Amino acid sequence: MNKPVFVWIKNIKFSANLPTANCEFISSNNIIHAITSDDIARKCNFNHGLAQIVFNHDYQGNTVVCAIKPIMTNCKQEQYLNMVNFAEQHHENLVGRFLKLLSLVTLEELQPFINFILDRMDILQLFISSKASHKHHHSYTGGLFEHSIEVAEMTYQNARFLDHSDVECQTGLIAALFHDIGKIYPALHSNSNKYIAGPHDSYAFALLATPLGQLGTLSSRIFSMLCDLLATKPYGHKTRYAIEHVLKQADRTSAESNFAKIRFNELPSHYFYTQVNGNVMYRISSL
Questions:
Q1: Whole-number Å distance between alpha carbons of 188 and 193
Q2: What is the Cα–Cα distance from 81 to 87, expressed in whole angstroms?
Q3: pLDDT of 66-115, one tens digit each?
Q4: Which residues contact 52 (CB under 8 A, 6 or more apart)?
Q5: Helices 111-119 and 92-103: angle between axes, nearest 10 degrees
Q6: Residue 235 and residue 8: Cα distance in Å, rounded?
Q7: Could you tell me the pTM of the whole model?
Q8: Residue 197 backbone dihedrals phi, psi, to 5 degrees
Q9: pLDDT tens across 210-226, in order?
Q10: Is residue 84 exposed (0-12), middle (13-18) or buried (19+ Cβ within 10 Å)?
């Protein structure tokens, strides 16, 4: 069976005479007409919006939807399509992963961050299309978005696994998702889309000033924790929140894993080592 993919479902209509339903969805900017079972369509209790689906093709070439998992999001169809257009085609699934992460934030105090990012298409465009670094990790178009999503997914999942509270899990998710968003600040205020090094931790506070201000009026404790997670840490810093360890590990894992993969990208698949800064790095390819 194929892997789940994110699509925007336009409509699901039940057949009057057959135990099937017609499903119309958008994928890769194309409208696709598919069929699914009456049972799958009724169980999802959903007929419009973002969803994670599994589909394949029958022997007649018809598209058949085998599973539908709705993603509850405030994002509108126009916003979703704009975001997909900002992403390169092979990064389209990242948009779905991003919106799925936003759907996990249910605390009222953190909703200003969801509303802010979905309302600022200028920021979203740069966030989705920018590099995460000049030459180190995720140093390609869309790398910042990919890295941010990876860090947020790992932070949230690991925090849940380690039995952190809901407020720590969700605050950690927001901090992880936006920990590097300050890297787009120079491009947002100039005519250049090139990566420009700078104090991105400080820039993040400038970009997130509006939702941070709203959070401060709703919960001083969550505000303090989120600011601490986003702030630059001086040498000898003593961690105040346990969730910071989870976020730091996720950030390091995403960066170093990508850095290693980039080193091997231009090498033949049978190469099992390479040199990086005078050190040997190994890998095991598919056997």
A1: 8
A2: 10
A3: 999 999 998 999 999 999 998 876 678 999 999 999 999 999 999 999 99
A4: 4, 5, 6, 68, 69, 71, 96, 100
A5: 150
A6: 46
A7: 0.89
A8: -70, 150
A9: 999 999 999 999 999 99
A10: buried
